[in-house]
Every structure is written in C-alpha cells, then in structure tokens.
Amino acid sequence: MLVTIASLFVTQAYWFKKSFDLEERQFDEKINIALRNVAHKILVLDSNYVARIDPIEKVASNEYYVQTNCYFSLITLDSLLKEEFLIRNIDVNYDYSVVSSEIKEVVLGNTVFNTTNQQLARDSIVACSTRLDNNLDLDFSIRINNKTTYLLSAMGIWMFSSLSLLIVLLVFTTVFVFILRGKKLNALKKDFINNMTHELKTPIANIAVASDAIRNRVMNEQKMAQYADIIHKENDRLHNLVDRVLEISSIEKSADTFTMELVDVNEVIMSVVDNFEPLIQDKKGFIKTSLSESNATIYADKVHLSNVVYNLIENAIKYSDKAPEIDVKTINEKNTLRLEISDKGIGMSQENQERIFEKFYRAESGNVHNTKGYGLGLSYVKMIVEQHKGRIKFSSVLGKGSTFNIILPVH
Length: 411
Ligand code: ADP
Hints:
Largest sheet: 5 strands, antiparallel
Strand content: 15-25%
Bound molecules: adenosine-5'-diphosphate
Structural class: alpha+beta
Mean pLDDT: 84
Low-confidence stretches: 365-369
Radius of gyration: 41 Å
Number of helices: 10
Strand order of the largest sheet: 1-2-5-3-4
Shape: elongated
C-alpha cells in the first residue's frame, strides 16, 4: 500500500508539473500576442506601417522586453496595455516601464493592479510624459507580478485533486501509525500477561498445597498455624497484585478520586525510606538523604505521592546489581520543589530510555523474571506527577546508574 500511495504521489507531482508548464506556455503565448499587438498599435500611431516588430524578448520568467524603436507617450502605452489585456482576459498585476532604445535605461514607469477590475485599473496613476523628448526612440518592458499565483489559480482542478491526494495520504499515515501502535501495545500486553501468570502461579500453588495439608489434618497445631500463615501471606500477595493493576485503571479514568491536602514531601520521603531500611541493610547498601531545609510542603494526595517515592526507590534498589547506593534529595527552586532520586545501578540503554514510561514496558524481556515487576511502576509515577501538574525527567547511563527528577509546583 505504501508503494502504491508513493507512486500515486509521484505520478500526481509529475502531472502537476507538466500541466503547470503547459499552462505557463499558454500564458506566455497569450502575453506574446498581446504585447505584439500593443507594439503594432504603437507603430501605427507613429505612422510607421512598415516596420517589422522584433520578437518579444523574455528577460526573466515573468519579465518581457518589447522593442519598438519609436516615440510614444506613457499614457498611450498604459491604455494600449490595459485594452489588450482586457480583451484577452489576462487578469494580472504588472509593472511596465518605458526604456530608451539607445541606452537601455528606464525613462518612466508605472504599476497596474488587476486589469479586469475597471475601477482599480482606472485608479492607477500614469506618470506625466511631457518631460520626454519627442525625438527619443523608446522600447518598453513589462513584469507580471503575480504570475505563479495566476497560473496556480488557473489550475483549479489540479489543485483540488492534489489536495485530495494529500488528505488521503495523511489519513493513511495516521491509520498506519495507529495500527503500528496497536501492534506494539499488543506485544507489551502479551509480555505483561506472561509475567502476571508467572507471578500468580506461585501464590496459587502455595495456597493449594497449604490448604490441602490443612484439609487432610495430618499435622500438629504448630504446623497448622504455619500453613495458615502461608495462606494468609500468599493471599496478601495476590491482593497487592490485583490492587496495582486496578489502581492504574482507576487513575486513568479520573483524578477526582484524589484527596488533595498540604503534604510535607520530606516527611513522606523519610517514612518511605524507613520502610526500605531492612531491605537495604540486607543488601548491604545505603540510602543517603539530603532534604531541603526550607518549605517542602506541597498540595498533593499523600497516598499517591508516597507511592511515587516508593516506586522510584524500589526501582533504584531493584535495578542495582551490586549493593544499592541511593541518593534522595529535595531542592527548592523558584516556585517548585525538585525531588531527585539517583542510583548507581545498571542504568538503561538509549532504546529502553525512550520507552520506560510506556505501560507494561519492561526492559530486556528475555530475563524479566529475574527482577519482579509488571512494567506499570513508571507509567503510574508519570501519571500521578502529571495529575499534580508536575514534570518528570531522568537521565541514565548504561552500567553507571540513573537519576530521576520530579518537579512539583509549591503552593
Ligand atoms: P517494573 O520495574 O515493574 O519493570 P517500571 O515501570 O517501574 O516497571 O520500570 C520500567 C522499566 O524501566 C524497568 O523494567 C527497567 O528496565 C527500567 N528502569 C526503571 N527504573 C530504573 C532504574 N532506576 N535503573 C535502571 N532501569 C530502570
């Protein structure tokens, strides 16, 4: 289809050019006849019936030079030009000038707008010719000012068909982009479902085993409590999983569900960091915080904001192959508060950087099961930040680490 559309476009362009050239040739011919007639009438007025009219010289694509080699007044030339153009229906704006045949210098000149508009044509001022010496031999030249526009407007049907083709091309491209996008989303969704089933299978299997064991009652009290505990924990895991997916779809629907209040971002950060402390110690890493001393209070939904910080710190830990070294900062800038979270983890390739905010996108789908996740974290973060009228930026170097910046307005 692309090839067909492209060849259609080339054909159209080719024929458009051809018909423009043809139109121009016809126009030149019409002008040529009109100017020859003017020259002829000038010679007759000069009582010169025998002189041969030299061919009209086309000096530029829109400029013509006519040799008459006799005396005529500017008024005569003006009215003859108007008359000829009117007869031939040549409706253009033009400048003309009277040129001395000998020294080829412009002696007098004038501009005419629109010959078929009688009023405008009459209004054009003709310069006084009394200054000219009656013995002077004169030629004249004329320049059409709106030749291209005139030719294009004469090609109405061509313009219409080209425009239609352009619209078809635009529609086609849009449809094509949508199809491609749909295809990409489908692939991402398939990845997501694979991950999800993988994540769901483990807790379901654990619950099945534990509940079977309880049903068979072949155990002591202590074992029973242990199995009940397993069921409870796995149930929690399933619950969290479902919540995360539901959360994303509910936020997409509307921001009305937000409970906006004054929130101290530093406090939120500290409480999230505290939650991660045991995990960080386990991995022998550290989180360094340097929080802004001045006002870090913003108008926000506390739960969603904590989730944002949680997701970013969780990613910083998840995507560190060695002991995580994480820096969390808040900085006051003009009317905004910048929250910066940087890690010295695995970083991202250029290709991944372009796509991390896409829903369900996970880098290197080959080994996605090594680090847990559904590719929803960053799309959620971006959505929440934007709902809070903020911006998210990041920079990352593969193998060196990543830095995420969230800029939120301060009230
Ligand atoms: P998830 O972590 O569940 O896969 P996210 O939306 O949070 O989904 O992240 C999308 C992808 O962005 C991740 O799969 C990962 O490849 C990349 N990514 C996110 N944060 C980081 C980080 N701090 N360092 C390196 N890669 C990251």
